[in-house]
Sequence to fold (561 residues):
Amino acid sequence: MRKKVSGLILCFALLFSLPLSAFAANQVNTMDIQAVIYEDGSMYVTQVWEGDFNEGTESYIPMNAPDYLTISQLTVSDQNGAYETVPEWNIDWSFEEKAKKCGIHHTDSGYEICFGISNYGQNRYAIEYKLDNVIGAYSDRDGFNFRFVNDGMNTTPTDVKVEIRLADGMPITDEIADIWGFGYDGQVEFSDGAILAYTESSIYSENYVTVLFSLDKGILSPSRQEPGSFEEVKETAFSGSDYNDTGEEVSTFEAIVTMLLSIGLPIGLIIWFFRMKKKRAEKKRQRFTERFGYFRDIPNDGNLSATYALGRLFDVCEDGAILSTGMLRLIQLGCLSPVETQQIGLMGKTKETVSLRLVGSNHSSMNEYDEYLYTVLESAAGPDSTLQAKELEHFASQNDKLLRAYIQKCENAGRTWLNQKICLKRWDMPAKLTDLTPTGKQELGELMGLKRYLTDFSLIAERGVKEMPIWRELLTYAMLFGIADQVAEQMKELYPQISVELTDYSGSMAAAYSYHYLLYSNMKQAEQRREQEKRSGGSGGFASLGGGGGSIGGGSGGGTR
Fold:
């Protein structure tokens, strides 16, 4: 849910920055920032900018700095060598006067780090400087709320990465530190003994990169002593962020309404753009499927896990769909048995429900995945060996890791199979057709060809008795693709001789899917709740697009002039 809200906010930001992004003559493609923290709380920063610069005379970084945040040791260099650091920077100098020079320009709110563009075209700049008193010593913890990249820049960087380390080499880990990120779509995490904050999509003029960081007492000896607590700094930063978001539907609804009222038609155009992009990808896959044609057999050598893994890569299967087919398989093996029961509901009305009774796991046809899922369901069923809806809801919310482990276990097995057959050149999610080897294209063709065949089942004239022996397997794959209901109904019309069996099987599929939905939806809610608790508690995770107030260091604006 948070991702949906964040996506809307990102669209909002994108809307008002489109003119700048589209027509700006200067563009910073990447901004790589290295920050090293010393024992006294000072910080040495190295920023490396790579991009295209074709207008203006200088680049500058505004620093809305309190009196204690003094700067020293400023150096700048580009691909052709080091710049001269001048004692006083004059923003009115000409292009030639600023060339190969850098300096500090003092402002009412702090100062600006300035350097001449020097050469138009592709450039790589390295800006280095030291800031005193960045880390504050608070009553409960030591830390900072520091803005590394400003909002309102006229040359917003496409990709940003910030890495923060301790100068003495001591690893920064979740055990001794807490971290949060604000102002961008991306992650903040502990990585290789450092804090790593990075964007996952292009940032625009409304975006910024702020890192809130706290450390256990006794690790550093900051010169800056603060009378309050770091908790107060955190509360200020959290204001306007989604770190305290409960994830309730009303907040999503309110966010959507706010966005629509604020920007009306333009957001529709942005959504249309992304939909068109998705449709183009779907059309490419459709053309691929049409070239391959229909596939009338079991795909991928009958490896259901491989089909699921490949389907996930190409957005053919939903996350967790293997859970429903796993439950259906247990019903097929006779390990689960649908049982109709009657319950007295409101107003004394009788309500028929379908429960699943665990019959036994000693079946010779069970594989390790069947056994794992059966064991999980056995834990959920309780002493009566019958799966009830309320039991499953409670179980999934408390044991989501067990269910996710089953889903991941199946997907990993599928990926192993795909790797053994050398189906992919690289693993991306979602994947592209160009990521496939010739073998991979054949395997994907079988998968998508079968889905197309099942979707068009009632329209295809060349059917016969070939489907009859494997109709159960075909419906299992239809369930994996999310089209089982329509395929089963088509089969009933086309094969009346097995209509009774199909009706019974449809009941089994309905039971498996119903219980899969209970398990999966409650598992996802538990995962989202745990992720929110983890990131709000400072263990890292996706950053908040809003919040981060009260930061020091950067401010607003910057880029080139």
